[in-house]
């Protein structure tokens, strides 16, 4: 454009010089005028091209500014995503630490459950030992014995089965044992009645026989009555003691069941918390993976642009 302007000025100068000459022919004037007109048309065309190029330049600068703003927005979004990633990672780390603590607590409670179970088994063995050491022997006529060892052994054998049975089974067993003890008591009552019948038979002996054996019968009767009284007292004490033992065993079993139920509930609660934490950690992990994929896709798109 500058070159054409300079050419235009130079031609105008030449034109002025030529006009000053007196010996200029008219055909030369026409040629210069045509040439100047052509140059002016070229100048106008170049001016239009200049305006068009300036408009294109302005549009291009707008596009550059727009892309610059988009780039800055993407940088800001990336920064925000990185901050969110740091926060989410912090939450995941905290969740993992909570998981570790809960697993440690779970292990501790499991050890406590095992410890309480061992204590319960030890108490059970002590109770069984006490039951084993408890025996009642009722002597009648120096030949009749109320041997409680068999009863206690049966109680101990059946009590060992109670730990693996339901409460209904335990109640059935207690009812059965009570009926057995009632049967034993009835059998003992039959023995007492038999002895009393023998005494009555002795009382119905003839007078001569009574005179001959009066001293013996009196002594024997006194001994029998003393033995009966002692046997009744011991039998009642044995029954009371056995019932007391059964009640103690029932209470101990109930406490053990309650403790086991409580510990199982605590264990289940811990397992539920652990499951929730595992789900939350898996969710965070998926979010992180999705965010990383999105960031990688955005950065790849920016690089391509």
From TrEMBL:
Q: Which residues form the IF rod domain?
A: 1-295
List GO terms (cellular component aspect): extracellular space; keratin filament
Top-level lineage group: Eukaryota
Q: What GO molecular function annotations does the UniProt record carry, in alphabetical order?
A: structural constituent of skin epidermis
Instruction: Give start-end ranges for the coiled-coil region(s).
Output: 36-126, 214-273
Q: Which InterPro entries match?
A: IF_conserved (IPR018039), IF_rod_dom (IPR039008), Keratin_II (IPR003054)
The name this protein goes by in its record: (spotted green pufferfish) hypothetical protein
Species this protein is from: Tetraodon nigroviridis (Spotted green pufferfish)
């Amino acid at each position: 454009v500058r070159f054409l302007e300079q050419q235009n000025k130079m031609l105008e100068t030449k034109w002025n010089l030529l006009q000053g000459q007196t010996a200029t022919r008219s055909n030369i004037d026409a040629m210069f005028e045509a040439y100047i007109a052509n140059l002016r048309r070229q100048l106008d065309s170049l001016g239009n091209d200049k305006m068009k190029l300036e408009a294109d330049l302005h549009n291009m600068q707008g596009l550059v500014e727009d892309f610059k703003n988009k780039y800055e927005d993407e940088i800001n979004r990336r920064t925000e995503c990185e901050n969110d990633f740091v926060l989410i990672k912090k939450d995941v780390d905290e969740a993992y630490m909570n998981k570790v603590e809960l697993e440690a607590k779970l292990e501790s409670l499991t050890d406590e459950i095992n410890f309480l179970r061992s204590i319960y088994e030890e108490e059970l063995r002590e109770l069984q030992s006490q039951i084993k050491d408890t025996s009642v022997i009722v002597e009648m006529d120096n030949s009749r014995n109320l041997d409680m060892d068999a009863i206690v052994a049966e109680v101990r054998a059946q009590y060992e089965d109670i730990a693996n049975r339901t409460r209904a089974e335990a109640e059935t067993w207690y009812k059965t044992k009570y009926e057995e003890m009632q049967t034993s008591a009835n059998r003992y009552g039959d023995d007492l009645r038999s002895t009393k019948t023998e005494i009555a038979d002795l009382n119905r002996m003839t007078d001569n026989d009574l005179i001959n054996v009066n001293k013996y019968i009196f002594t024997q009767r006194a001994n029998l009555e003393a033995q009966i009284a002692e046997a009744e007292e011991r039998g009642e004490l044995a029954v009371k003691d056995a019932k007391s033992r059964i009640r103690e065993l029932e209470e101990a079993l109930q406490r053990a069941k309650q403790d086991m139920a409580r510990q199982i509930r605590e264990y289940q609660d811990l397992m539920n918390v652990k499951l929730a934490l595992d789900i939350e950690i898996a969710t965070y992990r998926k979010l992180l993976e999705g965010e990383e994929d999105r960031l990688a896709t955005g950065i790849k798109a920016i690089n391509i642009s």
